[in-house]
Each structure stands twice: as C-alpha cells, then as structure tokens.
Give the backbone structure.
Amino acid sequence: MTTPSWRLDDVQVIANENPYTFHKPSVTAVQSLMPGDRARLLFLFHSDDPDAPTGERLWVEIVRIEEGVFHGRLDNPPLHIQDLAPGDAVRFEARHIMDVSVDDPEPSLAKRYAAHCLVSRDAYVEGGNVGFMYREQPVDENDSGWCFMSGEESDAYLNDPANVLNLPLGVILAEDDSFVALLSWPPEVAFERTEDGTFREVSMPE
C-alpha cells in the first residue's frame, strides 16, 4: 500500500497554544456530530512547489462514528494534494476537527473575540504594553469599539496612521489578557493601568 503524501494535523494542540486566535469547535458541538454532518480538517502535505502552502483545510462528510473514530468521505477537491480526491475515505478523531457544519452553542475564544479594535504600535509591537484603553460606540458588528494604547504616545504619534493598527481583539489578548474581563463593559468607558498592574476606570478621552 502506498503511503499517502498527506497527514492530518492535531489542531487541538494548536488551539490549546493559541486559544484567542485559533478557532476549534467545542466538545459539545463535536459530540453532537452525526452521519451526514461535515467536519473541516487540516491536511498537511509536502510539495516541491515553493508557492504551495503546507496544508489544506478541507471538509469531510461523516459516514459513521465508531468508538470515537469518525469515518468519512472527502467533500471538496484539494488544490495541491495530488493523491486525494472527493469521495476518498478519511478517518479522523475529535482532535483533528477545526470546524463543523452544525451550530456551536459554545463559541471559541477566537470567535468570541473576532471583532476588531484599534491599537497603537507602541502598545502592541514596540513593547509598551497596554496602559490605557477605552471603548467608543462600534460602527458595525465587526468593530468592538475598543482602542488600546500604552499611554505614552504623543498626539503626533497617534495622528500618524502608520502607528495605529486595526486588529482582532483576540490578537491583542494573545499578547496580554490581563484586561479580558473589562471587554464586556458597554461603550463610552475608559480604563488605565495602575502601578500594581490592575485597571481603574477613568474619564473618556476628549
């Protein structure tokens, strides 16, 4: 039997290491899967093509489930993996599942904090850390309304668009989640970090 050119990635490991930026369905959603449902898996492979990715995210339709092992059929064609085609049999476990076709009653942290925010380079890239944060009214469902700064930026610094980044909240939390409990506060609120590392409510910037 020829050894496949691909293997399934253990995305549970990735999710454990990157809870705020890597989405993985909840245990409840995975346990609810039945034949006919679909699961998305990450197929890793090697290619001599320098422009090819290291993996493809493909859907598999579940045929049966036996003692925690899912048996399915590939549901969509790969772009790069040559020895894999729709209809091919694929066996996998819960640790391989990175998305599901059913509703998830327990959104992952990555999905919960997918809305974007504004953050200064000094607070995120240049090691200043978040020392001041405030929330304005979001402009749409993809906007959290949150803005993060180190608190050391000058007006000239913040007026340069190159110094302000638009990123998902989860990306900020992956670096520092000491203020995650404050993110549920409604708009028109501001906080600054105190000397002991905690945050206190302050007036909104004008």
User: Anything to note?
Assistant: The CA atoms of residues 22 and 193 lie 28 Å apart.
